[in-house]
Design goal:
13% strand, alpha/beta, six-stranded mixed sheet, globular
């Protein structure tokens, strides 16, 4: 009888423990536009799978997603309705708009102070709103110059350009090889793709110009900015840059087909360009990446935000997820997946980027020198005006006229 009672007690304890364990299991939802791209699921979804393997008490539901073109708008709608996934991958330039909507949760009480301490103060300032920490810095990437060494050789170019002037000289030499060969392609120079007008920033910087001057005033029609627009117009008028098909998607295809000598792009999209080549092995033999000569790329920083519809009782699990996603195991998954993402945590980069390829080393070095985008609440609308200005250049308007119209258009954006 005593044995039976003991067995019953043990069974009750086991049952209670099982129920308690089931109740303690937490599910958090996460989304990224990358999850809508089949070839990126092993990286972005795989990072979640690795987290769940190391944290069996937490389930990450990453089934909700939208393609990049619809992603931000759908995210804002769901956040406003209180139905957003708990955690979302965003680009840094989207954060001001989400803050203005008042839909983002303070994560400071839930993320590791030791992890936060690894970031430089400027990085944490970029994700802070007063005393609140409103996003987790995740990773950054930047642009480097794709170079077609086969075209360089045909044009008699023996060394890689090291200055902006040398790059232009080499670009003109390559474009002289024949019809349909472009020396230097400028992304979005005819406005095929909406947004991302900030692709001209490296050219502005090459001429000592910038989006704003030292006093913080808009400076898109400064003397040096006009010089930059004159350069772009010359590249288009002289057939050195393409005048059609200037979305990144089309430039990758043209570069893969061997029709572009130079243009800047991400490390993660080298494979995309290679897939357009008739022979991928030959593509890689004539491919080289260098830091953009005479200027620098801009940093595209990516954050993780938590929406206010996330229940407080789930936040400790969310904090663990955020810490994990910024650590070396996940950044290594991205690196091995060819995504070229660099962490803002020095200790993570020291673990991951050891003995990397020459191409990856170029991107890691370029990321250390990349300049930030001039992000504010109006920047996303303002950059569409830059695309409009590039379209006007392609249509034949003069550089000074375009710069003046651009300055007026962007000033109106900020005034409104």
């Amino acid at each position: 009888m005593k044995k039976l009672a003991l067995v019953l007690v043990v069974m009750m304890l086991v049952t209670c423990f099982t129920f308690a364990s089931a109740e303690e299991k937490v599910t958090i939802s996460y989304t990224s536009w990358a999850l809508a791209e089949e070839h990126l699921v092993p990286v972005y979804g795989g990072s979640c799978d690795a987290f769940m393997a190391d944290n069996p008490d937490i389930t990450v539901d990453y089934s909700q997603t939208n393609p990049y073109g619809d992603y931000l708008n759908q995210l804002k709608i769901s956040a406003a309705n209180g139905t957003a996934p708990y955690v979302a991958h965003i680009k840094a330039e989207w954060l001001p708009e989400l803050l203005e909507m008042g839909v983002v949760k303070d994560i400071k009480p839930y993320v590791s102070a030791d992890v936060v301490a690894e970031y430089n103060p400027a990085t944490i300032a970029a994700v802070s709103n007063g005393d609140a920490m409103v996003a987790m810095p995740w990773f950054g990437n930047t642009y480097a110059m794709y170079c077609n060494t086969a075209l360089m050789e045909q044009a008699g170019i023996k060394e890689m350009p090291t200055t902006w002037e040398e790059l232009l000289d080499d670009a003109y030499a390559i474009s002289d090889l024949g019809e349909g060969i472009y020396g230097l392609a400028i992304p979005n120079s005819n406005g095929v793709e909406a947004g991302e007008g900030y692709n001209i920033l490296p050219i502005l910087w090459a001429y000592g110009a910038d989006y704003r001057d030292a006093e913080g005033k808009l400076a898109l029609n400064s003397e040096n900015a006009v010089k930059a627009f004159e350069c772009i117009k010359g590249l288009i008028d002289d057939g050195v840059s393409t005048t059609v098909g200037n979305s990144f998607k089309d430039l990758r295809r043209l570069f893969g087909e061997g029709k572009i000598g130079f243009y800047w792009d991400l490390e993660a999209t080298i494979k995309t360009a290679a897939s357009a080549a008739a022979n991928e092995d030959e593509f890689y033999k004539s491919f080289k990446a260098i830091e953009i000569p005479g200027t620098t790329g801009y940093a595209i920083n990516h954050f993780l935000v938590v929406f206010k519809n996330t229940p407080d009782e789930v936040m400790p699990a969310v904090g663990r997820f955020l810490d994990y996603m910024t650590d070396s195991k996940v950044i290594d998954i991205f690196y091995k997946g060819g995504q070229g993402k660099v962490s803002g945590r020095a200790s993570v980069n020291e673990k991951v980027f050891v003995g990397v390829s020459d191409t990856s080393a170029v991107y890691v070095s370029a990321m250390g020198k990349a300049l930030p985008l001039p992000i504010d609440i109006h920047f996303m609308e303002a950059e569409t005006k830059i695309v409009d200005a590039l379209t006007m250049l392609a249509q034949g308007k003069g550089a000074q006229e375009v710069a003046d119209e651009l300055q007026a258009a962007v000033e109106k954006v900020y005034a409104d």
